[in-house]
Structure formats: structure tokens, C-alpha cells
Amino acid sequence: MFSSQAQENESDNNSPSVDSEQRTPPKAKGRGFIPSTAKPTVEVTIGKVGVEVAESGSSTAKLTAAIAAAKAGAETENAENANDWVDVNEAEEESNGPTIHQAAAQGEFQTVAHLLNSGQATVNDRDQQGATPLHWAAISNHVVVARFLIDAGADVNAVGSDLMATPLHWAARNGNLATVTLLLNHGADPALRDGQGFNALHLSVHSMNSMLVLFLIYTSIDIDTPDALHHTPLMWAAYQGDPSTVDILLKHNASVSKVDNTQFTALHWAVVKGNKLCIRKLLDAGADAKAKEENGKTPSDMATELNKVDVWRSALREAGRRRDGEPRVTLFDECIPSECVLGRRHVDYESYVLAVLADPGFIHKCQSQEEQKQLVIELANKGILDIRHFCATCLIKKPLRSKHCKICNRCVARFDHHCPWIFNCIGVRNHRPFMIFLIMMIAAISSFLYLCIEYLSTTSSSYQPIPSQPCILPSTICAWFQHDTWTLGLCVWVGLQLTWSIGLFMMQSYQIAAAKTTNEMANFHRYSYLSRRGGAKVREHIVAALSAGPGAASAAQVGEDESGFGDHARVNNNELGDNSLTGRGRAVQRLQEQSLSDTSAYEDRFNSGCLKLFVGRSRKRRYRVPENNNPFDFGCWNNCADFWTQGNGGMLQNVDWYGLYDVPLIERTVTRRNGGYVAVAATDDNV
Questions:
Q1: Residue 403, by phi and psi: left (phi above 0), alpha (psi -120 to 50) or beta?
Q2: 462 burial via Cβ count (<10 Å: 0-12, 13-18, 19+)
Q3: Hey, how many other C-beta atoms are within 10 angstroms of the C-beta on 551?
Q4: Backbone angles phi, psi at 634, to 5 degrees
């Protein structure tokens, strides 16, 4: 792919064409399996087409048409091969039953176990392609089957298929993080190369799974390892237009100056793809905008040839570069720092500027790569290394209710929104001052309008009509316009701001009363603790740690119960101790005590929906959370008290929003009392 695209940029190229069949990613075939047609599969099959176009001196338009034709041809070929293989396997299954390879590909654990236990197959049997059952379990991401095969003695580094690939290669090629983690934990070698010269890191980049790339980086594999044609993982990510993977590679010191066998840098390949974000990230990382490939063409020259000048110039502008690629230097930003003009003390700490520049709750980043490595490995082993639990930009574990702000480029605890008025995020530390700011602003606008009206009413005289300038407004308003047009115009403009300021305040007040943030209101379907309809294919692993208190994680029990309900955790009161309860634990304890003394009051709150929490195991029955449940909602009064007292007067006291990673499932025994249901704390006797 890279070689053919590079040769396209010269009119007379005598380099030998690269046989595309030697560089085609593995076509995984099997019962019911349709080969992936993701980008690497399609792109590397255009080698011959690209060379032929380059040798004939065709234009960019012809190259584009050739690439499109090659993509269509590759997809058709893959589909035909898959259908043929499926027909053959179905015929074999009808006559002989499924083979161990077919069962592994389908995740049929019982069939695999039966074939092994009965002696009809072994864990290292080869199929027609030379692949083992572990290959098929790996490519289909059937972790349970893969673990069973490994425990039974399967070779994790077995080389098979036409491309001499290992199970790790197959899993990485499809972006199967769970299977890759399993294989690496059992001794798979990520540095091994397949028949195309790709190792696990190259193939993970091909899969465009940025979390898988991040995990493999911490296996001590060389981040700049080249493939057979000297293309680094960064070059592949740039060509595929994958900004998240590009960002991860750059954060881990991937070289932007490496060149392939045609002297293309990663920036050249980003321009070929035309992804502005990838180009900008490479420029921000110090990529040379004047680097020349073997024919003397810079990225700017290639952008001109490929009709991507607008994308190139936009990326340069956003990266603070001039059109020639040199950094743009402005007089005020560089030569006269703001501290010299205003004084650092006034910029950082004084009065209103303090509210504007205040820390909204930025989450501290891991300082060392060793800490980051341990965190990534821990999350991968728990099966939660994904964008919901880990921020690939800040390289931190994301607490519950936090979000990464693209403008501030930081993760913010209990993120509400980014406010353009103060050019700052609204989070756990400045949400209350922001509400006070809204109240004061509304009061100031109202006072200003009142003063303007009083001023105009007192000083203006009666309206004197002017025939050449008729006024269709009421005579009083016309008199005010005639007396002081500027003041009345300013009054009208300020009055318009009052309308949406009041609207914003009312919306924020409602969200505070409902214990939700603006981000959660807009994206509730993305958060499992607000809605279980997200359809996550992998079960969430509940850690049951309320605030970062010691012993909370060790007291959690994860998995399904006998009733089939998933994702529950149990907090053992004996292990935690009464004094270790923080935040929500104490809140529930207070509610439980309150229920014994004031049953009716508790029933009103509980039945309102604000207090329906996650529930744990009891002898009699387990209740599952409604899909629209909000575990942070303790009722309007308690929610407002918690907000305005900064967590000291409501139910959620002493909650560490920087370390709250999941909502625990509270144990309850539901009993009938006085016509209503009362929640009582579960003990060891009734669990």
C-alpha cells in the first residue's frame, strides 16, 4: 500500500511492482465467518494497480479511480471466497458434524470440550489452512473457548495459515483486546512477525482499535518497529486517518521523522489520506512540514497534487504554522508575555479573573509511564480498557461522571459543560460559583434595565413626531428613542441577554434538583449508570468502590447471580466496617435508619423514583435497576442541599468525585410494612 502510493507521485518510476498477494492480510475463512474488509485489507490489495498507474504517468484522478476499482474488486473477491468456504463447511458438517476448528470459530464451548475429551481432536490440530483451533477462537474473540484451549495445552505461538500468522496476529488484526490480553498473559510473543512482515503492533493499528494499540505499547514492543517496507505503526495510523491511534503513538514518543523505503514520513501519509486532525497532531508533535520524499516532494506539494490544499492549510493554521510550514510567531503571545503586562499575581489569583481561571476539577494525570503501564494492564485484565473507563488523551482512568473536554484538553471531575462565557469548564469545583455568577448576572441585568427605564422616564419629554421619520412604536417608546437612542438600544440588547440567562439558570436549577449534569442530560444513553439500554456486549465489571476508600474494591463481588442478573457487587459490612462507609454508603445508612423512624416519609421518597438504587442479593428476591434510574438522585431537597453545601449537607457527603469509578450495588431486603415497601440494610444473615 505505502509503496504503491509513493510510486504514484512520480511520472517515471522503474521500481519493481510489489506483488499484492504477498501483502494481503489473512483471509480468515471458516464456518459462518465472513472475512473482514477493514481498511488494511482493502488498501494493501491495490499495490499492483498503484504501480501500473504510476508507471503510466496517470493523473491523480486516474489513481483515485483505480483505487476505487481495486477496493470493489477486493471486497467482491473476499465475499466470494467466504461464500465458497461456508458452503464447503456446511456440507462437511452435515456429513461428519462440526470440526473443532468450526466449533472454536463459533464459540461452541460444549462442542470443543466434547471433541477434546472424547479424543476426536487435539488442541493443536490443523485445518486445511494450517490454522489451529486457537486461531479461530482468537479471531472470533471467544475468550472462554480460547482460555479452555490454552489450559488444555494449546500452543499460543503456533504459526499457521497461508501468511504464517499466530493466534495473536489473528486477534490483533480484528482488534480483539480481550483475546490479545489473554494470549499475552499466557506467553504469546508480540514481536513475532507474520508472512507479511507485520507484528502484533502493526496489526493492532490496522484494526483501528486505539485501546488495543495502547495495551500493546506497554508490552515493551518497539513503538517504531518497521514492517517489511519500513512503514512504522505511526505511518499506518496516519494513512488510515485514525487520529486517536496517532495521538496515542505520539504520546508514547513515536518518531515523526522516520521514513519508509520511499522516504515518505508519517506526515506525507497523513496528507495522502487527507485527515486534518491527523495532520494537525503530527505538526503539533514537531513533524517537518518541509521533509522531502525521494522525488523531492514535500507534504505541501502532495496536497496540491491530491487536491487537498484546503485541508493542508487548515491544519497548518490550527497548528500555528504559516503556509510555508514554519511556526507562526505573534508579538503579544511570544515577545510580550501577558505576565509582563498584567502581572502574574493579577492574572492568576485576583477577584473575577480567579473565577474565570479557577480549576474546575481537572483530574491529575499519571506522572510516570510506569504508573500508566500498570493502570493500562490492570484495566485490560479486568476487561474494561475502553473509552468509557480510560481516557486515551490524558492516559488516566476516568471517574464516574467525568468527561474529557476537547477545548481544555483535560478530564474534568463531575463535568457539566464547557462555558464559552468564561472560557472554562464547569465541574465539581466551580459549578456552585458558576450558579452564583448566573444569579448575580441576572440581578445586575435586571437592575440595569430598571435604572435605564427610570432614567428615560424621568428625563425624556413628550414625543414630537417627525414627518420624514415616522415611528410605529408606542409614543412613550418613540419619545425614549428620540431622547436617547443609544441608551434605549443598549437597554434592548441587554434585555435580550436576560431572556436566555434566565433560561440557562432555570435549566441548571432543574438539573441540580434532578442530580444530573448537562453532559448527562445530553448523553444519558452513553452512561450505563443512567441507562442499561446501551447494549454493551461485554459485561461491566463493577468495582464497588464509592470514593477511593481502602478496602472497598476487595469487598466487591463481580459476576452474575443465580437468577441471571449481571453486573452486581456486594459490599460486606464486616470487611469495610462502619467507619469506612463514605459518601453514598453513609447516605444509604441514614436512609435506612430514617425508614425505621419515619416510614411514610421514606416511602414517599422511595416511590418517587429518586431513591431507587442498585440492589444486591437477598434470600427472597433480587430487583434490577430500571433503565432510567439515576443512582445519584436522593430527591429534590437532598439534591439541592448536597449541591449548595458542597456535599456537606445532603446525602452524598464526602464523596470523592476524583476517585468514584463505579456505582456499588446496595443490598436490600424488601419487606412489606404498612402497605408500602421499606428498604432494610442487608446483613450476613440474610445474604
A1: beta
A2: exposed
A3: 13
A4: -110, 20
Comparing C-alpha atoms, which of 294, 250, 253 is closest to residue 5? 294
- Is residue 342 very low, low, confident or very high in pLDDT (cuts 50, 70, 90)? very low
E-strand ranges in 96-175 read none
Alpha-carbon gap, residue 556 to 585, rounded angstroms: 14
Q: What is the mean pLDDT of residues 240-251?
A: 93
pTM, entire model: 0.64
Q: pLDDT tens, 171-220? A: 999 999 999 999 999 999 999 999 889 999 999 999 999 999 999 999 88
d(CA 469, CA 560): 79
Q: Which of 419, 471, 636, 640 is catalytic?
A: 419
Angle ∠(664,678,635) on CA atoms, nearest 5: 65
Packing angle, helices 276-284 and 243-251, rounded to 10: 10
CA separation for the pair 607, 10 (Å, rounded): 73
Burial classification of residue 326, based on how many CB atoms lie within 10 Å of its CB (0-12 exposed, 13-18 middle, 19 or more buried): exposed
Distance, CA of 275 to CA of 238 (rounded, Å): 8
Contact 589, 681 (CB under 8 A): yes
Q: For 413-464, how does the pLDDT look when each residue is reduced to its tens digit (9 = 90+)?
A: 999 999 888 888 999 888 888 888 888 889 989 999 999 888 888 887 777 7
Catalytic annotation present for 405? no
Query: CA 47, 52, 53 angle in degrees (round to 5)?
Result: 100
